[in-house]
Specification:
It contains 16 helices and 29 strands. The strands form 7 sheets. A 7-stranded mixed β-sheet has the order 3-7-1-14-11-12-13. The protein has a 6-stranded mixed β-sheet with strand order 9-17-16-15-10-29. With about 775 residues, the chain is α+β, with helices and mostly antiparallel strands. It is globular, with a radius of gyration of 28 Å.
């Protein structure tokens, strides 16, 4: 056959059909910004630029506790290229700020209360000049003894005008004289973890002609940041605008307000744009961390292993300032017994100030710490009774209709038994001896110091629960607008995309409701109505609900003329695959034809049902909804050197409804991997209040080599009727359950108590073998 003939034959063949584009809810629609992020063209905050740009640097305290006797900025101001130096004297508005409680100064004035507290900030024409000028500010200190043990905070001199006690919750539920046939006790310690955001914390402040300022930040809660900034700057909120730039992922409050506020002050002082990009050390010193927690537990059970009473004391180290410690304590106390039926519970919870780095919102706050403790108690109880650990848990699991120790009835789906049974019955992975050629699978890797004969395998369980949205009367509300212009839909909502997938979900909601393929989500700024913080799954629920309601209003606008024309109601029309059809088949047209040349829009709000604060005895309907997760961990432990390798984590989770399968799986896998770091490697060490090794060399994040096989063995889709789409938050629950499961597996492998996270090697060493 000639080349010409071959070409003709090939040309005559029909082209392969294009792959269908994922569409609507339930499809794995790819993220709109995925290509830009993988190609390195996505605009993060650190990439910002402006004409006439100045650079900022912040001077931070080298001491965790000291009295400031003098601040001399003369030398810094006189350095060539320096345009401004600001201290507490230059704050024109409210000198205090804070996410949960305004108790933290913009700049320390009389006293520094933690290592890294801001004292002054500098703007200069070069970043090196700014850093040198900040170092040239002379601060005289009278160093004071830091209070770093939270137990000592009760008796120590007040570290703050508000005192050392932030909150005390005494939960009382049931009969205090109840007792069980079997009693187990334990003391547990949870270390301090850092959110460790991958991207640099950065921002740009640009002064406005009206005397206001625009802040370009990777903010996760722009309207709250605007209120804080306006108060500090002495401006009306409408004269401060927050524009959200690309957020490089967030598992907590993304931005350190301790540099947002100096940044804006410098721009207002100089009249020039000012940029600040924090070093990794500054990130560790500035933003909040997970609460280190001390927990004492006593569990009572009958002879069959059914829980009778739980007594606990929970002490959260809030660090120097309150931040969101009150909310974290409420979650810790409310979930102190876990997803188990406990007829009698008596919990004492405290959050106290110390001179340690500030603690605040980190994914699963409060719930993660208590999960590690109550699951250790369940292991102890199973061992004492001679019962299988999974079976003991199944005898006590919570279900829909049961009461929490707070007196709140669990009205949402709570398939805890199904989740636990699923992971228990999932086949176990092969033993290392079955694959001897894969030496790297052993703890320590192929060149590790251990011997294969010293490796023991353990299987353990973690069952966790988290609350969704805010709690204790928090007003959860979000507003969204959906516009359709000439066949293209646009969503305007101030819900920040932090990696949780909201922008993808918003596109799917509009596609599903209106049958329009091309959907764009507008950038976020504070000119839009507020949507709240991007945490606890609130944007899936509240902001997604607002988008759905707005889209349905636009749908009505689209269908009403057609319904009127054919003498029927809009309820008799449906939109499927871009087509509008009537129930009887009389009407059949396309969405594209009906929206061509038209402009439709609607704005809607979503506000879940209200909650209430816990009362003086820890009782109250404090939570909108809850999500549950069960994890079975399989670990290999070298009992001679204490090295641990997580072999597999089998996960079953109640998700309400799967809205985007690929996105949901990624979120669960990321949460589980974060839990591996909490269990084994991540511990921000702060001897005498000073952060040691504030970098990613000293702070050991798990890498791809540390990630185990993650098996998502079941997703229970029992829809929560009060939630839009029936979906639940998915990220926090595996973070809560996986550290507990890993610790349980190490206990099973070694027989050691393992009462501290992260697990130290000496805790996994077994002597006398």
């Amino acid at each position: 056959m000639s080349n010409e003939a071959a070409t003709a034959t090939t040309a005559a063949q029909p082209a392969p059909a294009p792959e269908p584009i994922p569409h609507g809810l339930g499809a794995s629609l790819p993220a709109a910004d995925a290509r830009a992020k993988t190609e390195g063209t996505f605009p993060y905050a650190a990439d910002l630029w402006a004409e006439g740009l100045l650079w900022a640097a912040v001077l931070r305290s080298p001491h965790p506790h000291a009295r400031i006797t003098s601040i001399d900025t003369t030398h810094a101001r006189e350095m060539p290229g320096v345009r401004a130096v600001v201290t507490h004297e230059d704050v024109p508005g409210t000198p205090l700020h804070g996410r949960g409680r305004a108790d933290r100064p913009v700049f320390a004035s009389d006293v520094v209360r933690h290592h890294g507290e801001p004292i002054a900030a500098v703007a200069a024409d070069h970043p090196d000049t700014a850093r040198m000028a900040a170092a040239a500010v002379i601060v005289e200190y009278e160093v004071l003894d830091p209070v770093t043990d939270p137990e000592q905070a009760f008796e120590a001199e007040p570290l703050h005008p508000d005192g050392n006690l932030i909150r005390h919750i005494p939960l009382r539920h049931g009969d205090p004289d109840a007792a069980g046939d079997v009693v187990v006790e334990g003391l547990y310690r949870i270390g301090r973890q850092d959110p460790a955001p991958i991207g640099a914390e950065a921002g740009l402040a640009v002064p406005r002609p009206d005397g206001g300022v625009e802040l370009y930040l990777a903010s996760t809660d722009p309207h709250a940041d605007r209120e804080t900034a306006a108060a500090a700057f002495g401006l009306e909120p409408e004269r401060v605008k927050i524009v959200v730039t690309g957020v490089p992922g967030a598992t907590a409050d993304r931005e350190d307000q301790g540099f947002q506020l100096p940044l804006g002050l410098l721009a207002l002082t100089t009249g020039c744009p000012v940029k600040l990009t924090a070093t990794r050390e500054e990130s560790f010193l500035g933003h909040v961390h997970r609460h280190p927690t001390l927990l004492r537990y006593r569990h009572h059970a009958d002879a069959e292993g059914r829980l009778v009473k739980v007594e606990a004391q929970i002490l959260l180290d809030a660090g120097a300032y309150a931040d969101t410690s009150s909310e974290a304590l409420a979650a810790a106390v409310a979930f102190a017994c876990g997803p188990y039926v406990v007829p009698n519970a008596f919990i004492e919870g405290w959050a106290v100030r110390t001179n340690n780095p500030p603690s605040g919102h980190v994914r699963g706050e409060g719930a993660m710490q208590v999960c590690a403790a109550y699951e250790a108690q369940m292991d102890k109880l199973a061992k004492k009774l001679g019962v299988d650990p999974a079976e003991l848990r199944l005898r006590n699991v919570l279900a829909t209709g049961d009461l929490l120790p707070t007196g709140q009835t669990v009205t949402c789906p709570a398939p805890v038994a199904e989740l636990l049974q699923t992971v228990r019955d999932f086949p176990l992975p092969p033993l290392p001896k079955d694959t001897p050629e894969e030496e790297w699978l052993l703890p320590g890797g192929p060149e590790g110091a251990g011997e294969p004969g010293a490796v023991r395998r353990g299987v353990g369980y973690g069952v966790g629960m988290v609350h969704m949205l805010g709690a204790e009367g928090a007003d959860e509300v979000s507003t969204a607008t959906v516009k359709v212009h000439d066949g293209v839909a646009t969503v305007l909502c101030a819900a920040v995309e932090t990696g949780q997938g909201f922008t993808t979900l918003a596109r799917q909601i509009v596609q599903e409701t209106l049958g329009i393929d091309e959907v764009h989500v507008a950038p976020v700024d504070t000119d839009q109505p507020p949507a709240g913080a991007g945490c606890r799954g609130r944007h899936t629920w509240v902001s997604g609900g607002a988008v759905e309601r707005a889209a349905k209003m636009v749908r009505t606008q689209l269908l009403q003329p057609l319904a009127h024309k054919f003498g029927m109601s809009t309820e008799l029309l449906q939109i499927t695959d871009g087509k509008i059809t009537s129930y009887d088949g009389v009407l059949s047209t396309t969405v594209a034809e009906e929206v061509a040349g038209k402009e439709l829009w609607a704005t809607a709000q979503c506000r879940p049902h209200p909650t209430e604060p816990l009362d003086a005895t820890g009782q109250g309907d404090a939570f909108v909804g809850m999500a549950f997760c069960a994890i079975r961990a399989v670990v290999d432990v070298d009992i001679e050197i204490g090295s641990v390798r997580v072999v597999e984590l089998a996960v079953a989770q109640d998700v309400g409804r799967v809205l985007n399968p690929a996105q949901l799986a990624a979120r669960i896998e990321a949460g589980v991997t974060q839990g591996v770091g909490i269990a084994l490697t991540e511990n921000l060490r702060t001897p005498r209040g000073v952060i040691r090794h504030p970098d990613l060399t000293g702070y050991a994040l798990p890498t791809a080599l540390d990630a185990p096989d993650i098996r998502i063995v079941k997703l229970v889709e029992e829809r929560d009727v009060v939630a839009p789409f029936g979906a639940k938050a998915v990220s926090a629950a595996p973070v809560v359950a996986s550290p507990a499961a890993i610790a349980s597996a190490v206990r099973a492998a070694t027989g050691r108590p393992v009462n501290r996270l992260p697990i130290r090697p000496q805790a996994a060493v077994v002597t006398g073998q």
